[in-house]
């Protein structure tokens, strides 16, 4: 059996120091090969049956990683679309509690309704801000801008106490932080960050009873028998979360299957330990340089105030990071090493 390090070295060979997974994860070699093969299948005119099988395999692997039955997982293409379905199903006047400065895909569909009461509070005050009449709490598990991790257990308990549902976007944690999708009503994620997949894939986990949401975007893939549902209104919606499926980018799912299989093979616990060790090494090095990152204990994302302007210089030196609201954001994943951290610290010290 291959070790963690040997398997990673087989799949990844970045040409620079890549510390920007919070924007886009790197594609494994197996995923690139699958994407190329899917394109050739289209070019050659071959049957695409195996690509539809890839969708179902990807769904099943994601369900295992999320810790839920596969029947609770809907496949789509974006967090925004899944959020929109949930938002459209809320009654007029419903209160939605969100985190200040959260990612637009998580919050904007609720604002776009125009007839919901959307309330935003600091992420560390979410649990205490749930109140009688709160219909839904929507939040990213890990904040994209600075890596802060929401106190989801406290939020879950507060929501239960007041009869609110929970909608958690794990796009910035799925792949390095173990998922507990069964603990929340709805869990959503994109594919192209820590799960190492291509763009064009997203998953939505719904309750067993669907939580009262309506499949307003249902097309033929949402039918109980999809190939018998191509024309006219659907005779029968899927009995599972597939009723919330959105049309598939088949090539993207072919790649996503391989990326998810790699994450499962490596083990999220091992990835978690690896990523956090690097993030903590960077935090310690920053302290020695006199810099104080945004407090985000236990996060693989480190954001350093007032250093965002250094991003172009770092990029010229072959170190890829991000500038978010003036903060330098470095995000560490399985293809990074302690040498990468030390190179970044050395560059920042100059």
Notes on the structure:
By secondary structure, the protein is an alpha/beta fold. The chain is built from eleven helices and twelve strands. Strands 2-8-7-6-5-3-4 form a seven-stranded mixed beta sheet, sandwiched between helices. A three-stranded antiparallel beta sheet has the order 9-12-11, covered by helices on one side. Strand 3, helix 5 and strand 4 form a beta-alpha-beta unit. Helix 2 packs antiparallel against helix 8, helix 3 runs parallel beside helix 8 and helix 9 runs parallel beside helix 11. The mean pLDDT is 97.
Q: What's the quick description here?
A:
The protein has 350 residues and is an alpha/beta fold. Helix content is 38%, strand content 15%.
N-to-C CA distance: 42 Å
How do the helices and strands follow one another from N- to C-terminus? HEHHEHEHEHEHEEEHHEHEEEH
The CATH architecture of the largest domain can be named as 3-Layer(aba) Sandwich
Number of helices: 11
Q: How large is the radius of gyration?
A: 21 Å
Percent strand equals 5-15%
CATH class of the largest domain: Alpha Beta
Write down the domain tally. Answer: 2
SSE-based structural type: alpha/beta
The coarse overall form would be globular
Low-pLDDT runs: none
Write down how many β-strands occur, each being a DSSP E stretch of 2 or more residues. 12
Mean pLDDT: 97
Q: Looking at CATH, which topology of the largest domain would you report?
A: Aspartate Aminotransferase, domain 2
Strand order of the largest sheet: 2-8-7-6-5-3-4
- The helix content is 25-40%
Major sheet: 7 strands, mixed
């Amino acid at each position: 059996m291959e070790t963690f390090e040997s398997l990673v070295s087989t799949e990844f060979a970045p040409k620079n120091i890549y510390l920007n997974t919070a924007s886009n994860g790197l594609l494994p070699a197996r995923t690139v090969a699958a994407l190329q093969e899917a394109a050739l299948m289209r070019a050659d005119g071959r049957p695409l049956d195996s690509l539809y099988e890839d969708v179902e395999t990807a769904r099943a692997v994601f369900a295992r990683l999320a810790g839920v039955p596969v029947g609770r997982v809907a496949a789509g293409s974006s967090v925004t679309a899944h959020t929109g379905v949930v938002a459209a199903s809320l009654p007029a006047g419903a209160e939605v509690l969100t985190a200040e400065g959260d990612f637009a895909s998580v919050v904007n569909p609720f604002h776009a309704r125009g007839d919901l009461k959307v309330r935003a509070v600091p992420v560390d005050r979410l649990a205490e801000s749930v109140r009688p009449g709160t219909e839904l709490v929507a939040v990213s598990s890990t904040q994209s801008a600075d890596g802060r991790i929401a106190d989801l257990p406290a939020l879950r308990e507060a929501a239960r106490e007041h009869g609110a549902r929970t909608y958690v976007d794990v796009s910035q944690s799925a792949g390095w932080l173990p998922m507990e999708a069964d603990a929340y009503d709805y869990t959503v994620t994109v594919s192209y960050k820590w799960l190492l997949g291509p763009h064009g894939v997203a998953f939505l986990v719904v309750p067993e009873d669907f939580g009262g949401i309506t499949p307003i975007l249902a097309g033929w893939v949402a039918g109980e028998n999809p190939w018998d549902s191509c024309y006219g209104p659907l005779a029968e919606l899927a009995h599972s979360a597939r009723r919330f499926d959105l049309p598939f980018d088949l090539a993207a799912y072919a790649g996503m299957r391989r990326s998810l299989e790699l994450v499962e093979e490596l083990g999220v616990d091992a990835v978690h330990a690896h990523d956090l060790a690097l993030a903590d090494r960077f935090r310690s090095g920053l302290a020695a340089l006199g810099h104080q990152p945004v407090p985000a204990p236990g996060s693989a994302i480190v954001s350093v105030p007032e250093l965002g302007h250094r991003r172009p210089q770092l990029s010229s030196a072959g170190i890829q990071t991000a500038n978010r609201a003036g903060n330098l954001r470095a995000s560490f994943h399985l293809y990074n090493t302690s040498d990468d951290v030390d190179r970044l610290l050395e560059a920042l010290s100059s």
